[in-house]
Amino acid sequence: MAEIAFVIMQQRGLNVVAVVDEPVEPAAVFMHQPVQPLSVLPRLAFDQVVIASFKDHQKIIQQLRRHGVPSEKIITLSDEEGAAPSDGPVEAALEAPDVIAEVHS
């Protein structure tokens, strides 16, 4: 799923500013982008964070919030029960020019 979301974002002309994951494997790369730890989030300028995973959205959202990402900037790609209030379809994320793809394998 993350690969599909990433390709769609690129096709729509969005600037993927980072790919983050936790934990990060040494020298990890996703779709030609270096995978960075969540700790880089406070230093990045972005409009949305797209959670491109079907796994445990609540845990991922909590991790993002702990790293200073406001709930209204977090977008999930599925209808997982109890997801963040700002969740929406991928189209909402595709309106933002600068996004971060959050990848959990």
Summary?
With 105 residues, the chain is an alpha/beta fold. It has three helices and six strands.
Walk me through this protein's architecture.
This protein is of the alpha/beta class. The chain has one domain (2-102). The protein has three helices and six strands. The protein has helices at residues 2-11, 57-66, 90-94; strands at residues 15-20, 29-30, 33-36, 48-51, 74-76, 98-102. Strands 2-3-1-6-4-5 form a six-stranded mixed sheet, sandwiched between helices. Strand 4, helix 2 and strand 5 form a beta-alpha-beta unit. The longest helix is centred in the first third of the chain and has 10 residues, at 2-11. The radius of gyration is 12 Å and the shape is globular. It starts with a helix and ends with a strand. The model is unreliable at 81-97 (pLDDT under 50).
